[in-house]
């Protein structure tokens, strides 16, 4: 049963979602070094930072220098967040290399939580809704044929509690009705989660209901925060109910850092760790184009720059070894500490001298087969151990 | 579409999987304090440690003292790991309070990876298989009617690479055939993952195929490690393909610590953080009986005792607030640091003096409704903001 997965596109948010909640004194040089490393990983979409008020976000005060001095990699889309026309104007001065971040579709969207939108952007929910007629009128004016609907704080809020999926659907239904009246097709749906209220069950239910209600929607965007460790499971839940006709846009950050000062969780907010999420996609056969090993270098660099350990896992245990050159030594000694675990990148020196408890060296007929280029197990039952002459027979 | 979830039972492995890879000098007093705290959380099944050779696992050298001195809570099942008859004998001296850990069903099981079983238990895969005829004979002798099949290192190995689900199914098929020959029904299937090769896609495929092949199997056990951050997503993937007729047994550790020195990942191995996984189940409506707040106290205690930060998330950002008394202050100042984020437990003192960027205090008609005991949103479309007189109308 090979599952037919959707096309997944991924946007790396570490330089924006990550850096905006870290120390404002991190140097421009350090940030440029990290950004340039990210460019070499194969990531196709990277947010470089945001053009926002340096008064409230001093971490982004020197974004101009970063954009001027980093080394754009051909083929990579670089974008920056801007929350108002002043920010967009500032960003436009650097395009190219920046792509001025535009939604592919004109979109009606608002927050289900009126507190967060006010705290984060100093606007009200009603101000968000007030823009909808204008967005529709502009779309009609230029003859746009396809549009989007969307919601932020889709599943709950730290200030208002849980939102049932029914509320989300009611909001989307209303937006869809407005596009219907305008005679413009809706093909895209965006769901944001700034306060980490996503769960895989709710994301799966939401995506499923949107698809059932409006089968012509085949483009989904999920911006999931990870304060309750649900972002990866939620992303998987979305992938599994989408099909090859669908596109899923996901965001996350190397190491899983990130957050904002407005949501109430600060640095404990986080996003899905890019390296863990993309490594999962590798395993599922969803193309990412990203070199996990280089991504791990970026995580280690980010940890050095921000001065604390991040919570992503693949950077600590290493990727699942799947090729002969990556398999662990079957006679390696005890590996106990986090430092010793880094042998996957640093080599056997880091665990040398560890306890070796075996009287006889370990041997493995399976590993012998693999070293000869064969699979560990054959494909038929008759190739399994109980029928292999290279394994001892049971006495009984 | 309320999903019908399986019954889920949960076993806390922190005192065993966690402590076995931490400093051997952690005191008995500290361990007993943590164990007694765990007993008060509502967890129904707790592993207290293991009876193994103190030569290779000095962390468990003083397990006898712990078992003698901890305070058993009525209704909680306490168990201990033993890998051989000597260990079982030692554990039996403390029963009660210990329940000698027995599988509910006689089970045929072995590792797909012959290297790990040798490294971990100094036995060979063939020695595991050699026991099968004896297990079947004993089951027949005492007239047992229901049995289990099982596999460890089910999806891959750090020493042999990835195993396709086909290999797992071939092994299970063979075991099932042996029970069939003996005329004993198979109702349970166990899948272990000591080397963190699980992914949600593979777990979902495996559980689905077992259920399709043998519909009478309605009892599943998953022991998932988390070195690649896939344990929670994999547990969710299993829950969603099981139904109310099924039982799913899951294991994990507070904070997500744990591992063994044999797998090659040491402390970077980990398991699903109990607090994050059970909080997800709370949200899904799967009963856990566990007080997440008390569980977070345990995580903090564990971090103090082992002297490092763990990677679970709910202990840092706090649970999703869902009741009026837990909702955040809508006029709270900036929350930036990990320390400030702990306000959910430590109170507003931890963020006092933070930046407050708003000229006018934030107000929220939704929050007013909630404070009055109403839902934020009504259930009908006509109760939504655009039809509410308590929200300003759009100008347009």
Automatic annotation (TrEMBL), chains A, B:
Pyruvate carboxyltransferase domain: residues covered: 8-296
Listed pathway(s): Metabolic intermediate metabolism; (S)-3-hydroxy-3-methylglutaryl-CoA degradation; acetoacetate from (S)-3-hydroxy-3-methylglutaryl-CoA: step 1/1
Superkingdom of origin organism: Eukaryota
BP GO annotations: ketone body biosynthetic process; L-leucine catabolic process
Presence of the UniProt keyword Metal-binding in the record: yes
One MF annotation (Gene Ontology) recorded for this entry: metal ion binding
Keyword annotations: Lyase, Metal-binding
Listed SUPFAM superfamilies: Aldolase (SSF51569)
Key word Iron present: no
E.C. number(s) listed in UniProt: 4.1.3.4
Entry similarity comment: Belongs to the HMG-CoA lyase family.
Protein name, UniProt field: hydroxymethylglutaryl-CoA lyase
Biological source species: Geodia barretti
Species lineage: Eukaryota, Metazoa, Porifera, Demospongiae, Heteroscleromorpha
């Amino acid at each position: 049963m090979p599952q037919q997965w959707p096309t997944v596109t991924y946007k790396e948010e570490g330089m924006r979602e990550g850096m905006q909640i870290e120390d404002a004194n991190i140097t421009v040089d350090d940030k440029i070094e990290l950004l340039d490393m990210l460019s070499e990983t194969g990531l196709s979409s990277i947010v470089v930072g945001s053009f926002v008020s340096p008064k409230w976000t001093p971490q982004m005060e020197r974004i101009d220098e970063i954009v001027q001095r980093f080394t754009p990699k051909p083929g990579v889309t670089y974008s920056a967040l801007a929350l108002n026309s002043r920010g967009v104007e500032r960003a436009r001065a650097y395009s190219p290399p920046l792509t001025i971040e535009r939604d592919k579709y004109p979109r009606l969207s608002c927050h289900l939580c009126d507190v967060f939108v006010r705290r984060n952007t100093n606007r009200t929910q009603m101000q968000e809704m007030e823009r909808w007629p204008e967005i529709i009128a502009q779309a009609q004016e230029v003859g746009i044929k396809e549009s989007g609907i969307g919601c932020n704080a889709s599943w709950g809020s730290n200030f208002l509690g849980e939102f049932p999926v029914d509320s989300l659907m009611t909001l989307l239904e209303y937006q869809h009705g407005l596009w219907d009246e305008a005679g413009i097709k809706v093909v895209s749906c965006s769901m944001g989660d700034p306060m980490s209220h996503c769960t895989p069950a709710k994301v799966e239910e939401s995506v499923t209901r949107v698809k059932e209600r409006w089968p012509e929607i085949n483009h989904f965007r999920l911006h999931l925060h990870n304060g309750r460790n649900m972002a990866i499971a939620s992303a998987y839940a979305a992938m599994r109910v989408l099909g090859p006709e669908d596109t899923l846009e996901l965001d996350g950050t190397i190491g899983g850092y990130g957050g904002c000062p407005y949501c109430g969780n600060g640095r404990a907010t986080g996003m899905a760790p890019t390296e863990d999420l993309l490594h999962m996609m590798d395993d599922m056969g969803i193309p990412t184009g990203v070199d996990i090993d280089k991504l791990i270098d970026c995580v280690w660099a980010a940890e050095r720059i921000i001065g604390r350990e991040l919570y992503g896992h693949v950077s600590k245990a290493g990727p699942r070894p799947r090729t002969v050159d990556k398999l662990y030594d079957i006679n390696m000694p005890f590996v106990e500490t986090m430092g010793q675990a880094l042998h996957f990148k640093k080599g056997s020196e880091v665990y040398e001298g560890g306890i070796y408890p075996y009287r006889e060296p370990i041997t493995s007929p399976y590993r012998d087969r693999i070293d000869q280029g064969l699979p560990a197990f054959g494909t038929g039952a008759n190739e399994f151990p109980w029928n292999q002459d290279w394994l001892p027979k049971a006495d009984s």
